[in-house]
UniProtKB/TrEMBL annotation:
PROSITE patterns documented for this protein: THIOREDOXIN_2
Highest taxon, organism lineage: Bacteria
The protein, known as: Thioredoxin domain-containing protein
Pfam families hit by this protein: AhpC-TSA
Domain annotation Thioredoxin: ranges: 30-168
SUPFAM superfamilies: Thioredoxin-like
InterPro entries registered for this protein in UniProt: AhpC/TSA, Thioredoxin-like_sf, Thioredoxin_domain
Biological source species: Bacteroides thetaiotaomicron (strain ATCC 29148 / DSM 2079 / JCM 5827 / CCUG 10774 / NCTC 10582 / VPI-5482 / E50)
Length: 168
C-alpha cells in the first residue's frame, strides 16, 4: 500500500508540473518571412489618421517598438535611429508603448530621436498594435522589404548599416 501512495504522489507531481507548461503560445512575435500586419496610428489631437504602415509599400521600412521604461529597447531604438539619419533608402517607424504622452515626448527629446514617424501608443501593452505584433515576449524591431515582408528581426545597428549599404 505504501508503494501505491508513492506512485500516486509521483504521478500527481508530474501532472501538476506539466500543467504549468504553456501550449500554443506564440514565441517571440513575428518571424522573418512573415508579412508585417498593417496598422494605423491615430493623431491624438484631431482623431484623423496620422500614419498608416500600408502607405509605405514599395519602401524598405524599419519598425522599432520600444518604451522608455525598457532600457534595452530604448538604447536599440536610439542606435538604429542614428544609423538611418543619413539614409534615404530605409524609412524608420518608431513606436513607443509609453502610457503617458509627456514621458514619451521627454524621452524623444533626451534621446534626440529625429524622425517624422515617431509615435506613441498610449494604451501601452493593452493596445491592439502591441497584441497584433505579439510583443508580449519583449520589444523588438523588424526590417521590412518593399512588399511588407519581414527580412530581418531584432536587427543590430551594425547589421542595419550593412543592409543600408546593400540596398543602395
Amino acid at each position: 500500500m505504501n508503494s501505491y501512495v508513492k506512485w500516486i504522489f509521483v504521478v500527481l507531481l508530474i501532472c501538476s508540473l506539466t500543467a504549468f507548461v504553456e501550449k500554443d503560445k506564440p514565441t517571440g512575435g513575428l518571424s522573418e518571412g512573415d508579412v508585417a500586419p498593417d496598422f494605423k496610428i491615430e493623431s491624438a489631437s484631431n482623431g484623423q489618421p496620422a500614419f498608416k504602415l500600408g502607405n509605405l509599400k514599395g519602401k524598405y521600412v524599419l519598425l522599432s517598438f520600444w518604451a522608455s521604461y525598457d532600457a534595452q529597447s530604448r538604447m536599440q531604438n536610439v542606435s538604429l535611429s542614428n544609423v538611418l539619419r543619413s539614409s534615404r533608402n530605409v524609412e524608420m517607424v518608431s513606436v513607443s508603448f509609453d502610457e503617458y504622452q509627456s514621458i514619451f515626448k521627454e524621452t524623444v527629446r533626451k534621446d534626440q530621436i529625429v524622425t517624422p514617424t515617431c509615435f506613441v501608443e498610449t494604451e501601452g501593452e493593452d493596445s491592439r498594435l502591441f497584441k497584433k505584433y505579439r510583443l508580449n515576449r519583449g520589444f523588438t524591431n523588424y526590417l521590412l522589404d518593399g512588399n511588407g515582408v519581414i527580412i530581418a528581426k531584432n536587427i543590430s545597428a551594425a547589421d542595419l548599416s550593412a543592409y543600408v549599404s546593400e540596398i543602395g
